[in-house]
Amino acid sequence: MRRRIPFHSNAVWPPPFIVFLFVLTYGIFYGGMWLILYCSGARSDLDTESMLGTSFVILGAVSFALFRLTRFHPAFHPRYAAWLRSSPWTWNRPLPLGPILLVWQDVFVIAVLAGVAWCVHATAAFVPITFGLSYLIGLNIAMAVTRTWLPCLLMAFLWPALFLTQDKDFPTGCIVAGLVIVAWAGTRFSLRTFPWSRNELESMRDSAPNLAKSLASAEIRLPGSEKSVWAQVSNLGWPFNALSPKAKYYSIPRLASISLSLLLGWWVYCVTVAFESSIVPAAILFFAIFAAFIRLVLYCNGLRTPFNIWGRLATGRLIIPGFDRVFVTPLTAIGIAIAGGVVISHFDPSSPAIGAGLLALILYILLEGGPTMREWRLTGSHEHRPPTLREINRRAFRSG
Question: How far apart are the first and last CA of the chain?
Answer without folding.
Answer: 59
